[in-house]
Amino acid sequence: MARSNDEIRGILVQSGNERLLLPNATVAEVLSRAPVEPIAGAPDWLPGRIDWQGWQVPLVAFSHLTGQGRDTVAHNSKIVVLKTLSGNQAMPYFALLTPSFPRLVSVPRDGLLADATEEDLPPGVQMRVLLGEEGALLPDLESVEIMIGDALAKAA
Fold it and tell me: Which region holds residue 85: left if phi is over 0, alpha if psi is between -120 and 50, else beta?
């Protein structure tokens, strides 16, 4: 059965007390575990790098970045590898830490409603949305990329 063009396929990722809604097309792979190599001098929201397909991929604890909770690297953590949007050849991927496997969702184009109840959004968040009864954050992936680049430059 063909999928309707009136739907957007997305991934819901748990991050602290929130869920992130990511476009399915940005997800390269979900890993059930990977060794994390710490980055000296990096902020707490950048717990390290993982080695993925020959790339040193920066790992972001999004809940730390936004101040929405604390995700820590644990033996049962999952890692979502994302394609960057900037086309930066030096950093074509970054990864998000999550405590559980992401969930695939199909969102009707008219079913994604902006939740305007929050005046000030945390850093790295583009908007808060409602998916039916569920709330989720739409991350601002481009600004997160810039924040990662800045943090890596300062830590170097």
Answer: alpha
For the record, the structure tokens of 138 come out as 């739409």
User: Which strand ranges, in their side-by-side order, compose the sheet holding 48-52?
Assistant: 27-31, 78-83, 93-98, 55-60, 48-52
Question: What are the pLDDT digits (tens) for 18-61?
Answer: 899 999 999 999 999 889 999 999 999 999 999 999 999 999 99
Distance CA 95, CA 35 (A): 13
Taking alpha carbons only, the member of 124, 131, 125, 141 closest to residue 110 is: 131
Q: Show the low-confidence residues of the chain (pLDDT under 70).
A: 1-5, 70-75, 117-118
In the structure encoding, which two tokens stand for residue 80, read together?
């979502």
Place of tokens 């097309």: 25
